[in-house]
Amino acid sequence: MGLGKKTVEELDVKGKRVLVRCDFNVPMKEGVITNDNRIVAALPTIKKLIENGGKVILCSHLGKPKNGPEEKFSLAPVAVRLSELLGKNVVFANDDTVVGEQAKAAVAAMNDGDVVLLQNTRFRKEETKNLPEFSEELASLADCYVNDAFGSAHRAHCSTAGVTDYIKDTAVGYLMEKEIRYLGNAVNDPVRPFTAILGGAKVADKLNVISNLLEKVDTLIIGGGMAYTFLAAKGYEVGSSLVDNEKIDYCKDMMKKAEEKGVKLLLPVDTAVAASFPDPIDAPIDVQMVAADAMPAGMMGLDIGPETEKLFADAVLASKTVVWNGPMGVFENPTLAAGTLAVAKAMAEADATTVIGGGDSAAAVMQLGFGDKMTHISTGGGASLEYLEGKELPGIACIQNA
Q1: Which of 5, 21, 38, 178 is catalytic?
Q2: Chain segment 156-212, per-residue pLDDT in tens
Q3: Active site residue 29
Q4: 158 DSSP 8-state letter
């Protein structure tokens, strides 16, 4: 399956002003960037546009400013880090209105290959409401537009979608291209057998994902906190484990759907239980392993057990495409990371296309040291989930077709 969208490779930018939507929503502590992964991930697209003689105007949001401009959400530190990484000066247009006098002057003074970074797009309240006046102002700075912010592609904001109403020459950047190629193709055109692994806390977060994946996969593995609602739906005692009582009938329906579709639905066969949730989350904790259908009342399931680790790992190793979203247990605790570790290890060893669907699973895989063993780790949490649900993302839909 092809990409279907025009890419940065196909965009003629020589001498043109190119507005690039990046994802510079990086963690900060007292004005210092604590993790620059998202900035590094944007470099290939930025460098390509510089090499091809474009005038590169970057924009992004950072955090959630509530009442317009707030100093702690300024992108100034990002401009400094970008300058270091690119080895050239990135001009920071420090306008609270984003497209103010400084921004206009900075863009007017640009030579081919120069880079300007605009202030936080969310300093404008119109941004999240996708109001045309801000979209038009942003568009007035540029001749073409590149979206490379997959993490924000599920939101129809001025800088991710609205701006394309006023700029017709549009493309996706390298990061976005990779997401569509791996995440999209893994789900819509997989090499089989295709296995999806879903974990994390709540069934409610993944309702549409479960239903959509059952249409596409050969095997669906359910772990993490959400597994206990499925076990409860089977009539098992699940003690004080996290259960979404309102979703028990839904889980029954999904188990029935799997059976009708001939999809293997794998649930934990044993589980690590403890008297209560660890507090703090990484505190030492006493656990015991029990069969999934013999959980003691009053005990809480916090990770999959060793039998389940083997069951899940065998399914992964027999697959040709594996997509994983959500940890198997409370992976932030060393004692309760075993299940997540076992799945990550199996994926690293599998002769398969392995895609990690953002969020906690991406954090877990990096933390456990398996990041470089995966085919693709998605940069988007919410965006990845919506993609797995089969939704069209506004930030991709608005880009010119190839």
Answers
A1: 38
A2: 999 999 999 999 999 999 999 999 988 888 888 899 999 999 998 888 888 889 999
A3: no
A4: T
Which distant-in-sequence residues (6+ apart) come within 8 Å of 241 by Cβ?
Answer: 225, 228, 231, 273, 295, 299, 300, 301
Q: Work out the burial of residue 69: count CB atoms within 10 Å of its CB; fewer than 13 is exposed, 13-18 middle, 19 or more buried.
A: middle
Identify which of 93, 72, 99, 77 has the alpha carbon closest to the alpha carbon of residue 158. Answer: 99
What predicted TM-score, i.e. pTM, was given to this entire model?
0.86
Q: What region, left, alpha or beta, does residue 154 occupy, with left being phi > 0 and alpha being psi -120 to 50 degrees? A: alpha
Is-catalytic flag, 38? yes
- From CA 128, how far away is CA 223, in angstroms rounded? 34
Is residue 119 within 8 A of residue 58, CB to CB? The reply is no
Structure confidence at residue 1 (pLDDT): 38
390 noted as active-site residue: no
CB-based contacts of 143: which residues, under 8 Å, 6+ apart? 16, 17, 18, 167, 169
Beta sheet of 270-274, edge-to-edge order: 288-291, 270-274, 300-304
pLDDT, residue 391, reads: 86
Catalytic residue among 359, 380, 381, 395: 359
Average of pLDDT values for 25-45? 93
d(CA 240, CA 300): 5
| From 104, 382, 390, 391, active-site residue | 382
pLDDT in tens, 341-370: 999 999 999 999 999 987 788 888 988 899
Cα–Cα distance measured from residue 244 to residue 132, given in angstroms and rounded to the nearest whole number: 41
Beta bridge partners of 20: 58, 146
Let me know if 382 is a catalytic residue.
yes
Q: What tokens were used for 84?
A: 């270091």
* Mean pLDDT for the stretch of residues 287-291: 98
**Marked catalytic residue, from 181, 202, 261, 391:** 202
How far apart CA 254 and CA 210 sit, in angstroms, is 8
Helix (H, G, I), strand (E, B) or coil at 115: strand
Q: In what order do the strands lie in the sheet with 115-118?
A: 90-93, 115-118, 55-59, 17-21, 144-147, 169-172
